[in-house]
Amino acid sequence: MQTRCPYCGEVVKVTNTEAFVCPVCGSHVGVSAGTTVLMRTGVVQDTMVGAKLGAYRVKRLLGCGGMGKIYLAEHEPTEREVALKILSDELSEKEHFVERVLQEARAAARLLHPNIVAVFEAGKANDHYFIAMEYVDGKALSQVIFERGRLQEEEALRIIRQVASALAYAHRQNVVHRDIKPANILLTRDGVAKIADMGIAKRLDAPGVTMPGTVMGTPYYMAPEQATDSSSVDHRADIYSLGATLYHAVTGTVPFDGATAPEVLAKLQVQPLNFPKGVRISPQVKRLISRMMEKDVKKRLQTAEEVIAEVDAILGGGKAAAQHRSVGFWIAVAVAAV
């Protein structure tokens, strides 16, 4: 198969569909649910490193995405480290993609929340379009899942709750993300979850650049209605995607799999949601995921606040059960001692 190295950005042919070493830069890369996970960076000669872009001095390459490369840079006037996304030269020549970059900045810059990656500035310098964002020192949820196989329910729920809090805030600002997935959830070293990449976000209170009938997003986590027409979705598409993310986190697999994107999209439209056999998942978490991933948007959990309430009920129930077991233990000890 062909895939793109998440560090140097080169398209490479690989035979191992689970992991490979980039023949160009030597990066060690894992593959999970069609997403490449950078496990160890290689060596690449990048002419941008050391260059100055406006007020920013580029320090090192962090990785490469679908729209361009991301660098660690320093905002020299404040000496603040930032993540600097630079649009590729090829895409910079396309007005539609340039508008999307500006849309990403507009959508994200208005969102000030501890669980959303902050956007500081967007502009053009030295013929390069760029976005300066908060630098998150940590890992993407996709990498954590890849390394550990799957997460314990409580840990996964606490991450999902933080993301739901950020989505609740974004939705109140009339912004729909449209690409919630493990790769777009960054985890700091302190365990704080932050939503990244507002690249295809949609403002419900302003005209969009997405043409009717266009499909945008990541198939493995995409809501059925988004798989038909991404221009018409509302906040409930994010709830579905967050449910699919929770599914992946607690099972270690994606809800619907396939050899191609069209196959995945076809399955999620018609096949019922099933949980893998042999993976222990509580009935409460299964019920939460199923309600978040209802194919009928009207039957789905309707708001991120509802998701938070459901998560809190599960986490609270777990504490109550633990307290109950603890009380039972001490009663047994007391009886034995009598």
Describe the SSE topology.
Layout: E1 2-4, E2 11-13, E3 19-21, E4 28-32, E5 35-40, E6 52-53, E7 56-64, E8 68-75, E9 80-87, H1 89-92, H2 95-109, E10 119-125, E11 128-134, E12 138-140, H3 141-148, H4 153-172, E13 175-176, E14 185-188, E15 193-195, E16 202-203, H5 224-228, H6 236-251, H7 261-270, H8 283-292, H9 304-337
Antiparallel strand pairs: 1-2, 3-4, 4-5, 6-7, 7-8, 8-9, 9-11, 10-11, 12-14, 13-16, 14-15
Helix pairs in contact: 4-6, 4-9, 6-8, 8-9
What does this structure look like?
With 338 residues, this protein is of the alpha+beta class. The protein has three domains: 1-43, Rubrerythrin, domain 2, CATH 2.20.28.160; 46-135, 2-Layer Sandwich (Phosphorylase Kinase, domain 1); 138-318, Transferase(Phosphotransferase), domain 1 (Orthogonal Bundle), CATH 1.10.510.10. 36% of the residues lie in helices and 22% in strands. It contains nine helices and 16 strands. The chain has helices at 89-92, 95-109, 141-148, 153-172, 224-228, 236-251, 261-270, 283-292, 304-337, and strands at residues 2-4, 11-13, 19-21, 28-32, 35-40, 52-53, 56-64, 68-75, 80-87, 119-125, 128-134, 138-140, 175-176, 185-188, 193-195, 202-203. The strands form five sheets. A six-stranded antiparallel β-sheet has the order 6-7-8-9-11-10. Strands 3-4-5 form a three-stranded antiparallel β-sheet, with helices on one face. Strand 7 (56-64) and strand 8 form a beta hairpin. Helix 4 (153-172) packs antiparallel against helix 6 (236-251), helix 6 packs antiparallel against helix 8 (283-292) and helix 8 (283-292) runs antiparallel to helix 9. The radius of gyration is 21 Å and the shape is globular.
